[in-house]
Amino acid sequence: MRPTGAAPQRPAAPDDRATRHRGRSESAPGGSLAGVLGGDDAGAELRVLDLRLLLPALLAWGVLVTLLPRSMGLVGAAATLGLVGAVVLLRVAHVSPAAGWTRVLAMSCAAVGLVTGATALHVATSDAGLVTGWAEQRATSQVELVVTTEPRVLARGDERQPLVVLEARVTRAQARGQVTTPRTPVVLFASAGQGWEDVRWRSIVATTGRWAPAEPGDRTRAVLTPRGGPSVLAEPTAVLRGVDVVRDRFRVALQPLPTDSRGLVPGLVIGDTSLTPADLTEAMRVTGMTHLSAVSGSNVSLVCGAVAVLLARVGTPRRWRTPLVLLSLVGFVLLCRPEPSVLRAGVMGSVGLLALTTGRRRASLPALGAAVIGLLCLDPWLARSYGFALSTLATLGLVLWARPWGRAMARHLPARLHLLAMATAIPLSAQVICAPVIVLLQGHITTHAVLANLLAAPLVAPTTVLGVLAACLAPLSVPLSTAVAWLAALPAWVIGRVARVCAQLPYGTIDWLDGPAGAWLLTALTVLVLVTGPWWWHQARRRPWWAGAALAAVTAWLWPSSALSEWPPPGWVVVGCDVGQGDAFVVSTAPARALVVDTGPDPPAVGRCLRDLGVRDVDLLVLTHFHADHVGGLAGVLGQAHVDAAYVSPVTEPADVAERTLARLAGEGVSVHVARAGDVAQVGGATVEVVGPGLRPAAGGSAANNGSVVLDVVVEGTRVLLTGDLEPEGMRPVRQWVHGRDYDVLKVAHHGSAAQDERLIRGARAEVALIGVGADNTFGHPAPSLLTLLQSNGAVVLRTDLHGDIAVARDDAGRLVVHRRRSG
């Protein structure tokens, strides 16, 4: 009998922890996707990951990417269908046996409707008023603007003033007897020297300028070219002026620091990369470290984490810690400017911090999904931003894999190295999931990225935290701020050294398919490796000799030697180096020797090109003119090869660049000759004849461009015409020279500018046209009209922005053969 009122007795339940333990130990290696993705000890946790909000967020993001550049009518239709579908599916969920999946579909429809509806609202607000109509008519207008981004100064690569670019929002405009007060976002392009580079963020300015339509799908709805400088109507608020004081005094405090540290510290702290040397920027790009040189989610996590640790150490009550951390987050975002990229970094950094500090990945995934939906509603154009994609994927990688991979590695390390395991897992998880997007951007796989990021990772935290402290001290005392900045300078300098050294390591990249096909292929291979990885590891431990042979075979396939990759190709005659927006061409004169024409803007890029070609001696270096995009890489040539002599243009403009260039050549002991039409030189197996410039400078156009040294080179039976940056005025004398001559290769003038002489191009009758041009340049090079002209003339057109390094060679039968290689 049981006593009255006693609770009924139930069989004892087995211990849950023991059950879970037995389930893991009895499963086969790699037996479940959860175990593969999260490590053997995380399978149970991943099986209960809450994807109900993340999946709708990703679907809404994909729909917005597809629809954004298209008609806003489609966006509005998607919003309507999404919201209606959500309502219908929620009603169906009440009676559906698969209610769970039905609710997920309903949430997906709701997410699509929400983000597309927000997009339609943004566009409707932006297009309200008369500005977009005036832009189509290219009207001139008096405008009042609120500046919404920091001005960016872009070099044009010639003697013209640099270009200032900033975004703003129109608050009032007047044209053609009409006045409008819209909220239209616009982009402004102005020449430096008019005062636009000095305007403050969030200030209100007035100007007069001409409107032009923006690109379809852009955030901005019109382009404004002002006719003069700005008139400041209102300064930013007191808080923002105070932030400007902090930023300005912080820059002053950084002046005594070494060059690399002076560029990296403000990049990590306030998102200012203007002081970063160009060669360091390239090294960080090559090694996959560019996310360190600007404000990212990891920086936000570090700052907030440091504040949280400090509050805990000083004994701040727990209820005050979260508000104070959020306050520090707001202050950091203000210091970096709350532009879209910084807001995105702040949100994603907060999600990543939640995942890493609490370990509650079940809660982190819904937070990430909510962050994606919220950011896309606030700024729909983030959907097509590579930065947003990389930030979101990196955060997803941290949420899914950083902790389980860190724990898995820590099991095989001593206790004192457990922190190293987590430090390795963080960049590894981010790199693995971001690799397909990086391939979409670069066209190759960066093999050194994990190593470089692993070496730099322990140095990011002290650089960022000490840099923020230095910035906070700057308004109080610049000397004190400088003292703290020196503490941040040392780890920053080491980060720079890591980037530079890793960029020089061999086999830094693996060529891959370009475009979406390459990205999807890498995605499929990544998933395959993650799913089957534990099984392969189990087999490798059972058959180590087979595993070693397979590893050697894969290594030989992925990292071929230069001989196996046939670069440089046999019989190469002339190579156009991929150096960005600039020119660098190499003509073979003998084994390991060459004629080099121009150096491009970037020393590492031209140095890499010469190194890969095996050039150790430059018989003749020709600097066609003194613009930075043709002589800026001089140090790369001098550092890679011995230069015997140099030909330079007689037009020494810009004067400061010419002076520095000539001084560098003199300092290296290079014999310099001012080239004139009629000069002839025998350079190894090549005959070099100077076609221009003549004694009389061309009237009109750019003096420096029309003073370009023009060469007629004959080597191995191949005739090459190299035209520098000639403009139509300088081409007229040259076209008389080429009359009656057949050229095999034409180096197209001025990066494919529309300003060409048609009679010169048709008279050259070149079989191959080479264009040195940078991807996504702001000049519209190469011009469609020129490409049409070249193709109609029967030339095969090759461009460094699309094809990378380009080599023209002769095969065994004496025929011209073209080889292309994506540079890395």
From TrEMBL:
The chain crosses the membrane at residues 51-68, 74-92, 104-124, 292-312, 365-382, 388-405, 417-439, 451-473, 480-499, 519-537, 544-560. It comes from the Bacteria. Pfam families: Competence, Lactamase_B. GO terms for cellular component: plasma membrane. The keyword Membrane applies. Residues 1-36 are annotated as: Disordered. It is found in: Cell membrane. Residues 1-12 have a biased composition (Low complexity). InterPro entries: ComA-like_MBL, ComEC_N, Competence_ComEC/Rec2, Competence_DNA_uptake, Metallo-B-lactamas, RibonucZ/Hydroxyglut_hydro. The keyword Hydrolase does not apply. Residues 581-776 form the Metallo-beta-lactamase domain. It is a multi-pass membrane protein. Keywords: Cell membrane, Membrane, Transmembrane, Transmembrane helix. Coiled coil: none annotated. One of its GO terms (biological process) is establishment of competence for transformation. This is DNA internalization-related competence protein ComEC/Rec2. It comes from Ornithinimicrobium pratense.
